[in-house]
Amino acid sequence: MTDEITLEESFEYSLHNLLEWLEILSLDPIELCSSWGNCNVAWELVSDLKTDGNAAISNPRGYLDAHQKQEVLGFLASLNSIPKSVLNGATSVHANQEAMSHPCWFQVKASALVLLKTLEPAVGKNKAYFARL
What we know:
Elements: H1 7-24, H2 29-36, H3 41-58, H4 66-78, H5 84-87, H6 93-100, H7 104-118, H8 120-131
């Protein structure tokens, strides 16, 4: 017996994680850092958004439409505008909160809310998938 994950499962988990990271972005910096564990939060968040976002849009078993995929791609590309200084390895609570309080996050957070709205039809399907497990 193997522990391989199917393409469908891979898509659903990637989408689930992407949606979770987008929602986490709506938290204020203190809550966000606390929920993330206060260890290099900015870099981890951006890395996970990119990993799960790219996996969700490239999976052949996914159900995102062309417009939704394009919006995800645009959002992921916008993450490249975050200054490298914000993504440096913050290891203290204060440094993480400072990094997540940088003004660059205002636009990222606004874009995340728009993307969540665009992905609403997929949210329902994703929740239904996990409700069946």
